[in-house]
Amino acid sequence: MLITCDRHKPEDLKHWQAYETCDLYHAESKGFKYRLDKTLWIIKEYMTSNRFYYVGVSWGKDSVVLAHMIHTLKIGNPLFVYIRMLDNENPYSVIVRNAFLSEYDINYKEESYSYKNASASWFKNGKPVRWYQILNELKLKHGAHVTGIRKDESAKRKMRFVGHGRESMNSFAPFEFFTVKDIFAYLQINDLPIHPNYAMIGGGRYERDRLRVASLGNKEGDGIGRAEWEKEYYPDILRRIENHVSY
Amino acid sequence: MLKNWRLTINMLTPLAVKPPALDALLMWELSNRIGLNRSDELNLKNTGEFMPEKLTRNTPLSQVKKCEHLPLCKKTIAGIDVFRCSDPIYRVEHEYTERQAKRFECDKMALMLREDERKSLLIASGPYKMRFVPIRVMLIPKVVYFFRGDKVEVRKLLKGVFALGKHRNIGYGYIKDFEFEEMQEDYSMLADGCLMRSIPFVNDPAIKGARRSYGACKPPYWHPDNYMEILEPC
Fold first, then answer.
1. For residue A235, which residues of chain B lie inside 8 Å, CB to CB?
2. Which of A170, B73, B92, B184 could form a Cys-Cys staple with B84, CB 3.0–4.6 A?
3. Quick one: closest CA in A to B18, which residue?
4. Span A84-105, average pLDDT
5. CA-to-CA distance for A177 and A189, rounded, in angstroms?
6. Do A242 and B96 make contact, defined as CB atoms within 8 angstroms?
7. Which residues of B151-186 are buried (b: 16+ CB within 10 A; e: fewer)?
8. Quick check: A146 and A168 in contact, CB under 8 A?
9. C-alpha span between A16 and A187 (Å, rounded)
10. What pLDDT band is residue B140 in, cutting at 50, 70 and 90?
């Protein structure tokens, strides 16, 4: 269930309908069912091994699928944590959150975070030290970070899986075999809320698979056309960020 | 003579990103002519006399010389003077992405040189920075503006404009010709109640086809000092 908004153009929604049809076909394939069973088995095995963990969500496609899978397995009462970037958060992430929480009852917590209170020192990737402090605090309080990153996202992520495997002391990433097509197919067949960003495809000019829901106007992750995409779909919010006007 | 006009710009090549507002285009051209833009050839010739810094986002507008004497009428809305010209109106026949690429195969090039003649080349930044930038390109046969103002002066200013949009230096947005047509109705701000250009935010339910946004409603549109709550056509 795509959450529509006034930033979508008519040609975007037309392309999205075609994508939906493809997703439903993909959901019937044997490969999808095989990878789904395997992923559920991986998550189940981790959850039943008495680990100390929390599930990090950003309300993007992978997070929603991960949250739904963990919720439907009904093993224990895991904690779901969303780190909100108050200064430049995507305005639709909270709408996805509300849609998901209205359907599913989960143990949910939010950590709010603002650049105004950020430490003066910054890492090379543009993230302030405070960001990592929050992750560290969460690790000490709730254990390992269960994350929705996938092996097929990028070469860097692939290297992560090759180097560290699915599971390390600090994190657990169950989507080793689940692909981006599987993610969208899973969202469709389970009628889960889909972030509006994934349909902002410029009438087919942007790849749906490469779009992200991360906070806007960030220094990191602005390559591969991300900066141009933000300027096209969120120009008013970028201007507000530039002039420090809340939205 | 101040009248209502429809300006049609017939395009020759596809346009990159999007066409500019008419007042922004005229102000850009006027600022070039009076020497406010450093990149202007005339200004570069007179380096000894007048060489202002090129206007950037970091320069407050209050510190630069005003360039607002355009041959267009103005209307004051919510205390802000906006020029009476519509936003560009165009029909996109096809929209696609092209790439502006620049790459130096340093490893292979170095092998062609003798070892003692090899030097380091910075490709992470500067003039040799490697690029693979996506450019949004639109195939637009013509762009139409409605304005109220002096046609002769507008035509004079537009004489120096040979292309629209971004990346004009590499062939995008070339103009074929300009056509002026006199109009009885004034469609520069509103057309049958529909908003035709960005204006400062006013809570008027009579205005149709508008949505609230944040941005500029007078040139230079890219300067943060001009950003405010606005109504923009949708």
1. 215
2. B73
3. A232
4. 91
5. 19
6. no
7. beebeebbeebebbbbbbeeebbebeeeeeeeeeeb
8. no
9. 13
10. very high
Residues 111-150 (B) with a CB less than 8 A from some CB of A:
133-134, 136
Report CB contact under 8 Å: A205, B96.
yes
Q: Nearest CA to CA, how far is A245 from chain B (Å)?
A: 9
Residue whose pair of structure tokens reads 């100390």 in the numeric block = A52
Decide if A239 touches B, using CB distance below 8 A.
Answer: yes
Cα separation, B176 vs B9, in Å, equals: 7
Cross-chain residue pair A205–B224, CB shorter than 8 Å: no
pLDDT in tens, A40-55: 999 999 999 888 899 9
- On whether the CB atoms of residues B187 and B216 are closer than 8 A, the answer is no
- Contact (CB, 8 A) for A81 and A111: yes
Q: Residue B134: is the preceding peptide bond cis (ω within 30°)?
A: no
Residues B54-71 pLDDT 10s: 778 888 888 777 777 899
In the predicted model, is pLDDT for residue B172 greater than 80? yes
Structure tokens at A186: 């899973």
Rounded CA gap, A212 and A197, in Å? 7
**Shortest Cα distance, chain B CAs vs residue A17, angstroms:** 19
Distance, CA of A173 to CA of A39 (rounded, Å):
10
Mean pLDDT of B39-61: 62
Cα–Cα distance for residue pair A36/B218, rounded to 1 Å: 54
Q: Of all helices (H) and strands (E), which one includes residue B177?
A: strand B175-183
User: For residue A24, what are its two tokens?
Assistant: 């439903």
Q: Is the pLDDT of residue A189 over 80?
A: yes
Q: Is A65 exposed, middle or buried (0-12, 13-18, 19+ CB in 10 A)?
A: buried
Cβ atoms of residues B8 and B187 within 8 Å: no
Q: Are A71 and A40 a contacting pair, CB within 8 Å?
A: no
Q: Which residue has the higher pLDDT, B32 or A147?
A: A147
For position A64, what pLDDT does the model report? 96
How far apart CA B33 and CA A66 sit, in angstroms, is 60
The mean of the pLDDT values for chain A is 88
Between CA A189 and CA B42 the distance in angstroms is 65
Residues in chain A: 247
